[in-house]
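Before relying on records like the one below, remember that each one covers exactly one chain. Contacts with other chains, cofactors or solvent are not represented anywhere in the record.
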Amino acid sequence: MGKTAVYQGVKFSVKSVKTDKSYKGRQSPDGKAFLLLDLDMKNSGQVSMFYMFPNEEMSLMADKESCAVDDHHIDNGIEKGQSGVCSVVFQVPEAAKKLKLNFRSKKGDTASMDIAMK
């Protein structure tokens, strides 16, 4: 994996990426798959406490299609110097090859990282 992005002083690193046709008892629509993305996070500095949701936005570009967060679990409220984990689920086109995770704040700050599929 190894991909990283720094956003609002928090380093996000890809821990794992996988796709599946079902998630929590739901089947993905035809032509789609669930993308399960696990990230490690480390608050290395700009803010004393980092909250991802609802303060910040995360989305995924799968080839040329914008995909919103379908489900998530995040260690919210990460203090400066501390680490946490984030698991995010998106519905993406099954044939998608180029994935880019995007972060954006309501103030306009942005960051992104390419996600490699196995």
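The first strand starts at residue 4 and ends at 7.
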